[in-house]
Amino acid sequence: MTNIYDVINELYNDDEGWNTVLERRYAEQFLRTEAFHGASDDELLEIWQQVMYLLIYCGNTSYRIGDMTAEDFIYCISWCQRNIGDFELDYDNVDYFLSVIQRLLTFLKQKKAISSDTAPAKCRLKLLGTDGRLLLFRNDGSLPEEYENFRTNREPDLETKVFMQLGQKLAVLSDMMQKYFGDARFSLDRRRASYAFFGTDREPETDMERPELFASFWEYFIFDYHLRDTDERPIEHFYMYYKNHPDPQYGKTNKALTELLASMRKIQLMVFTIEREEADGWFSCRDFFSGSISELSLPVDETVDIRNLLCIAHVFEDGNLITEYLRSVIVAPPVQKALYNRLSEFLAYYRVAHPDADWEQFVNANPALVMHMVAYAGIPDTVMQLVHPSEKAKKYKPAAIRIDDPVHQFLSQFGKLLHLSWQDRKNLTQMWGDFYDLRPIACFRDEDYMIWALSVLENYMKITKTFLLDVVPYAEKVHINTKTIAERTAVIQDVLHLEPFDPRYISEDAFMNMVFS
């Protein structure tokens, strides 16, 4: 059970600035008064959460608690529903919020900390209808234009939403997602992610001596890995699932959990160097790819030598890390430059098929590659050979995909049967589309379509150095002429001028093979 006074201590110990909004002694005394009047431990936590809504509002605006009018509280409620993930705008919640704040202001007036405590009661008359309806607010939570126009002081919204007891909520969601994606239907995705992350397709297991390794895998799986069937990241998939199927045991907390999941979809994998410490655990950091400077909250103290540290982490929009640990390697500046040049060449490769791609898109599509390259750069005396897409490849214009083409349909079926990734399936059908655009063919039997599909698959495995299917035994099993497959494989190779690790059909697996084979 969480102790309410521990929560208050943690708040004020972490940031003494809260004393300028509500003095610590008043916060503690108010909660003790509520406990004296019969509030249970759980009720005290609920009461404190209402107080925190007001503190967060005042702490981010120019308002002082004792000076707020009824209209100010209306604007406060409007602001909270937009900026605090836990705040739910309905009759019961507004009623409860105003009743707690009324008791707080009455207490503060008794202590002579403020001169008036009537604003919450007046606000109740404006917002709470006698028929149980919430007045003034529209269905989307906004106020009428004529009401907004009346305002003289407009407080800005926060860049990112605030969540109460964020650490607990993150732990709850992490457990939920590990359980959800631990289901048997995601076993192939887990094995594929394990192969990309660890180099083995065995199911990841908890290592009590290195718990951060297991946590790092799930961090990669949830925020970076792309599901085979949809190309969604698991965080995106789970957000839509939980939005439609919230867990009843979390009751009203489900709104905050869903809002937090929405925020977590914006978490980005970031590679960066630490420039200098600013204050209170915040550091000025330089994005390794773009060179832009941002402030991040890092678990780094004065004992850590930040010189030549190349770090990698998943970062919220507000600069906080999703975890309490930081992965980093010591990389000398010349090696950092070599790493940047190598990844720049990979970006050039990637842009052959995705001409508008920037660093963010490249990292999003190839997260395991980036992680391994950063780790690889930390190995002493590492030599990184540059690779360049050919001039002809740079002029590549992908052909249109003919979805109703029988060969396309055979390739799609193979993709599902072989459990290929979304990117592999896309590359296979694109290769066929490009070939057909240059050399249209006519088929008169289903066997011909199958032969062309197997020939495309054979070429794709050759250029990406991946194994998807042993074509010859499969062809013999279904009584297809293997000699014809070999001939048509050569035709496709000649027409498309395929080359090893062809940038037109590159995948993350192919990038990894290019680097480590």
Structure keywords:
517 residues; alpha+beta; OB fold (Dihydrolipoamide Acetyltransferase, E2P); 4 domains; 5-stranded antiparallel beta sheet; elongated
Care to describe what's here?
54% of the residues lie in helices and 7% in strands. It is α+β, with helices and mostly antiparallel strands. It has four domains: 4-149, no CATH class; 166-264, no CATH class; 270-377, OB fold (Dihydrolipoamide Acetyltransferase, E2P) (Beta Barrel); 406-516, Cyclin A, domain 1, CATH 1.10.472. The chain has a five-stranded antiparallel beta sheet, covered by helices on one side. The chain is elongated and about 95 Å long.
Q: How many separate domains make up the residues?
A: 4
What's the number of extended β-strand segments? 5
Proportion of residues in helical segments: 40-55%
> Which spans have pLDDT < 50 for at least 5 consecutive residues?
none
> Shape from CA axes?
elongated
Please count the helical segments: 22
- How would you write the strand order of the largest sheet? 3-2-1-4-5
Question: Strand-and-helix sequence, N→C?
Answer: HHHHHHHHHHHHEEEEEHHHHHHHHHH
Summarize model confidence as the mean pLDDT.
Answer: 91
Beta fraction: 5-15%
Largest sheet: 5 strands, antiparallel
Compute the CA-based radius of gyration: 29 Å
Beginning-to-end CA distance, first to last residue: 53 Å
- Strand-pairing-aware structural class: alpha+beta
